[in-house]
Amino acid sequence: METVFPKVVFTLFGIIPVRDTVISTWIMIALTLGVVVTLRRLMPAALEMFIGFVSDTVSDMLGRPAEPFLPFLGAVILFLLLANNLGLLPFLVTPTKDINTPLAMALVVFFGVHYYGIREKGLWGYLKGLATPIFLLPLEIIGQLSRTISLTLRLFGNVLSSEFIVTVIFSLVQPIAPLPMMVLGTVSGVLQAYIFTVLALSYIASALGGGKS
Fold first, then answer.
1. CB proximity list for 9: less than 8 A, separation 6 or greater
2. Distance between CA atoms of 76 and 93, rounded to whole angstroms?
3. Rounded to whole angstroms, how far apart are CA atoms 76 and 95?
4. Is the separation of the CB atoms in 76 and 197 below 8 Å?
5. Structure confidence by residue, pLDDT tens digits, 8-52
6. Is the N or C terminus of the chain more exposed, i.e. has fewer CB atoms within 10 Å?
7. In terms of C-beta density within 10 A (0-12 exposed, 13-18 middle, 19 or more buried), how is residue 210 classed?
């Protein structure tokens, strides 16, 4: 069972622990850059399909051109698609089973939502929308915090539960038996990446529209 939880591989400067999930994330980023460059040269249609899917999803929810939001949301869903399933590769672990990774992604969404809201309405206009009426401001702050926590725990809980199930089954039966659960875990990882991105998109849509992000 210890293989489910992140392990410290080494420390930087003797005080900063570097876990196996962090190392796997570094490797994943390098592999992603290599694959994207290769696909761009050999199979550009595959990248166009991915970009088209994200673009259609964004434009349908926002009711406006998707181009300004594609770099952010495309990076979010691509990162999570790979991170949620990286543990299928030999010697690598799933970065999102470490709660620090889902928390970091939720914070990225938190700041991204406010960035787009301020860019759309200006700093004063956006803050005025958040604080109108003023007596609801404490509820707005609580909502912002609870939403970030919810994004974190939803992603972390679903990924970790899949890891637990596969590990338990693998320890009890023959190695080939967990394969169906690994397939279901992959489907769940893809679904969680999509849900996380759609939720981020809905928060951006709210920030652009009603002032409540």
1. 18, 19, 20, 23
2. 19
3. 14
4. yes
5. 887 888 788 888 899 999 999 998 898 888 888 888 888 889 889
6. N
7. exposed
